[in-house]
Structures are given as C-alpha cells and as structure tokens.
Amino acid sequence: PSPPSSVASALSYTPSVMSRGGGSDAKYFQTTKKGEIHELKEELNAQNKEKKKEAVKKVIAAMTVGKDVSMLFADVVNCMQTPNIELKKLVYLYLINYAKSQPDLAILAVNTFVKDAENTANPLIRALAVRTMGCIRVDKITEYLCEPLRKCLKDEDPYVRKTAAICVAKLYDINAELVEDRGFLDLLKEMLSDSNPMVVANAVAALSEVSASSESEVFEITPSTLNKLLAAMNESTEWGQVFILDALSSYEPQDAREAESIVERVTPRLAHANSAVVLSAVKVMLRFMELIHNQDTIKALCKKMAPSLVTLLSTEPEIQYVALRNIDLIVQKRSNILSHEIKVFFCKYNDPIYVKMEKLEIMIKLASERNIEQVLQEFKEYAQEVDIDFVRKSVRAIGRCAIKLERATERCINVLLELIQTKVNYVVQEAVIVIKDIFRRYPNRYESIIGTLCENLDTLDEPEAKASMIWIVGEYAERIDNADELLNGFLEAFHDEPTQVQLQLLTATVKLFLKRPSDTQSMVHQVLSYATQDTENPDLRDRGYVYWRLLSTDPEAAKAVVLAEKPVISDDTYQLDPTLLDTLVGHISSLASIYHKPPEVFVSKARAAVYKAKPIIRKKAAPEEEEEEE
C-alpha cells in the first residue's frame, strides 16, 4: 500500500508496514522505559542492520502512540541509505510525520530522495521515493524534488509513472506556480496517451484535481483524448474507471451521434460489481441522454439502467441508503427508468428506519394509476407497524399519493378512513393532517367525510393535528351544524394552546362569524379579546387587530379577505428545482447527491472548487417527443 499524505492516515498505515517483520510487533508498543530516547539513539547508529531496523520500528511505534520522537530526526534520516525496502518505508513514514516541524533537517533527506528516484535496480524504491516527496509538504525542499519527479514521469516502469502522476497533483497543492512553470501539467497531458491504463487513470485523476482547484481550464477532453480514455477505461481498475467516468461526464459531445457512441461504450460499466462505477456510469449516461433525440434509443438505455440500479439494493444497508439517495434524484430526472420496478422499493421488516424512509419517498415518486392499488396496500400495512415515525410517514405518504393522482384520491381517502377506524391516536392525528391537505387540493369534493373526522375530535392532542381540524371546521362551518360548539371546546383552553393552534382558532372563529353572524357574536368578541389583550405573541396580536378593524369598519371587505377563494395546493412529489436537480445529477455518486444540496453549501470555499460539475446539457425536444414523455 502507498503511504498516505496526512499524519493520521500515515499512523494508521504503520501497523501494516511493521507487521511484515514477523508477526510479533505488539512488543514495540509495550515499552515505557526511562531513558528510552537515548537507547534508541544508540541503536539507530549501530552497525548491525537488524538492530537498526528494530530501532526504527520502536521509533515508529512510539510515534504511533503519540510520543514525541522528533529529536531523533537526524539519526532516523541517516538510516535512509539502505537497500532494505522495509526499513526505507519506515523511515519515509517518520519523515512524512516530522518533516514539517523540522524543515531544516528535512533537507538532509533530499540527496537520498534523488538517489532513490534514480534507483535503476528497483522500481518500487523509485515509486516509494516519489510518493513520499508528494507527502512532504515543505516549501524549502519542493524545488529540489522537481527534477527527480520529471524523470519519474517518464520512467520506463508504469508503476513509477502512475505514482508520479498523483505526486504532481500533490505538488500543485503545495506550489501551483512551480508546477505550471516547470511544465508538469503538459507532461500529465501527454500521459493521457500512455500505453498503460493505470497510468492514464492516475493522470486523469491528477488533472481533474488540478483543474478543479485552478482558475483556468487545465484539463479539457478533446475528441482525440476521448478515444484514449474510453480505451483505457476497459482495462483500468475499478477506481481508475471511476476517475475516467467522472472526467467523461464533463465532456461536451459535438452532436447526438457522438453522445450515443460514448453512451454505448460506457453502458457495459453498468454490470460492474462496484457500486461507485455503476453510479458514475449512470451519471455519464443521464448527461449525454439529454443530447440524444431518438426516443427508441432513450427507452433502450433506460431499460439497461434499471437492473443495475435495482442490484444496488441487494447490498448492505449503508450502501442501500447511498444508492436510494442517488436513485431519488434519478427518478426525479427520468421516472420511466424505474417505473416498472416499484416492488423492489417495498420495505422489508428488517430494513433500518433510514432505508425505509428513503424507500417511501421513492415509492411516492413512482406511484401511478397503474400501480396505486399495490402501493396503497403497502402503505396501509406500514401504517400498522410499531415504529411511530415510520407509521406517520406512511400515513402522510397516502395523502401525498392522493394529491399527486387525482383519479386515485377516493381510494386514498377510503384507506385513510379505514386507518382512522383503528382509533390509534397518532394514526388518527396524521390522517386528519393529510385530509386537510386533500381538501385544499380538491375543494368541495370530499367533504362528506367531515362527520367521521369530527367524531375523533377529542383524541387530537398534537398542535398540527388540532390546527388542521380547526381549519376544516372553520372552512366548512356552513356544513357543520355544531361548528360553534366544536370551536368553543378549543376556546376554553385558548391560553394553553401553542401559537400555531391559536392562530388557526382565531381565523376559524372569524370565518364562522362571517358565515353565521347572528349566533356567534359573543364568541368572536371573546377570541379577538384573547388575541389582542391577553397574548404576548406579536403575530397573533397583529392578526387579531387586523380582523377586529376589518369587522368593525367594513364586514363585506372582511368577507372578501377572510373567505376569499384559496389557491389550490400543488403536488410536491418532485420538490427539487429543475436547475438544482440538474446540478445534483451532475454530482451523482458524491456527497452532494446524498445531502441533496450543491457542494458549495457544505464544503468550505477553499475546497468547493474541487467539486465543480457542469450542469446537464439541455436539448429542445420535438413536439411529438414531449407528448410521448407525458
């Protein structure tokens, strides 16, 4: 394994290096002798090679457990000049850790680095030297390392070349100007034509990182580079494929034919065992499908993507969650990809709650008139489970389906009424909330069920459920004979209610007064007094004054304001803005696609540039295509 760049990861790497010595390295971590540093100094300068190696192991062990062994820097550096690769690795680990705190002494190591980078006998030593150079972030010695790095970039061994490519990106992070002046970026671009796919993949990774943190466009894929990347992708390792696919997603195809050709060559990656490769391939395909005009081709591609996305759900829960968050975006972009696969999103009894919640969201998005019976049956089952949060979400999902599918609304309401009959407190409360939304979506169509809701009035104890019920009573007061009694019941505890309920109660009482002024005069006076004189909440007080003045000056104006026709609520199934959705689809298989937020929201400005992604190319669809999609 290659030594990591940070101290923390370097230390985690230590045991794997040390364990090759013979399996009994635990002893190095058990010593707490006094005068240990002096002993180690003597052992490091011993003539016996085995003794010297044992001493370096002890130093690394001490460093791993947090002891300060920086005073041994010069002695450890002297051990670098050895043909033993295991000892060299240990010394390099020490260097990575302490070079920053001892920059003057780190210069002592430069000559050995240069020699190791030119070691003709062993490519592993050359690669190790160049890798460590990239990890030592000391400006003083950066310039000395340029020449060895240049030679390694042109090395005959592909292992050395691929390691050197990554080193350029690390060097750019330390001193961008130096990398540009010395022509390393041009050398990296030349490496895109390398005969070894791993070298190509690492060159792509390095150029992508440099390009992301550079103000100018450093890495631009040309048609000639494109073919080389596609050819290298087939033979790269899985992470090499991810680097290449991510780079391809920023390419601008010249026309629909080229886009189709690229997608054709990327499609086999959908069958890969690594979920990162699959998602990166999906990202490329979704982006280029925007340019393809042939609807039969698009349907065929959608059909190919579906099995790969479904396969991601047969993995462990954590990967399932990541896959589901990405699938959520894919379904919002092109719901027809998984329109026939809704059954795979049905929740299993042993799914963790976070997986169940994501599956619910996707089921709502995939619900259609063709499958609504199955979906409602599932939701009804979920609403009788033991996890209260999941039950609430399931009941709310039924309401969202009713709002989304007009023809299925009656079936959804029947299921909700069946759930209300169970008399389970939190189920009833959630059902009242969603029925209020259904009334707002389809006014004057399903009010016949108000009687059933009023029967369960006494069970409501949550603010949102109470506010919803009060809204229903106020909105349909003319259809409820005892509306004044119902509202009076809430008024008795007005001062103890949360603001949300108080505001709704105030509005509902004013609505009732405007509809039945003769027998509710004292009631409206009482609630207006509560709102304007007995409360400290400015929102409630202001609304009370507005209503009072409207009623006292112009009751007709009050009717026009309070009883005005309400705008119909919209379907929020596809809640992401299309521009944001395009951005997030461009970031599939990254953290942005899990958070559903653009990277600049959660990545510090210094690093946000690394996550730049081009928005999805948009094409103007022909009229017949638009009709077909609908």
Strand content: under 5%
Helix content: 55-70%
Q: Sheet with the most strands?
A: none
Number of strands: 0
Mean pLDDT: 84
Describe it for me?
Helix content is 65%, strand content 0%. By secondary structure, it is mainly alpha-helical. The longest helix is centred in the N-terminal third of the chain and has 17 residues. The N terminus and C terminus are likely disordered.
Summarize the structure.
With 630 residues, this protein is an all-alpha fold. The protein is 65% helix and 0% strand. Residues 1-23, 606-611 and 620-630 have low confidence and may be disordered.
Question: What distinguishing features does this structure have?
Answer:
630 residues, disordered N terminus, mainly alpha
Question: Which helices and strands occur, and which strands form pairs?
Answer:
Elements: H1 7-18, H2 36-44, H3 49-64, H4 73-78, H5 85-98, H6 103-106, H7 110-117, H8 123-135, H9 139-142, H10 146-153, H11 158-174, H12 176-181, H13 184-191, H14 197-213, H15 223-235, H16 238-248, H17 256-266, H18 275-289, H19 295-311, H20 317-333, H21 353-366, H22 372-382, H23 388-404, H24 409-421, H25 425-441, H26 450-455, H27 463-475, H28 483-491, H29 499-515, H30 521-533, H31 538-553, H32 555-562, H33 578-585, H34 591-595, H35 599-602, H36 605-608, H37 623-629
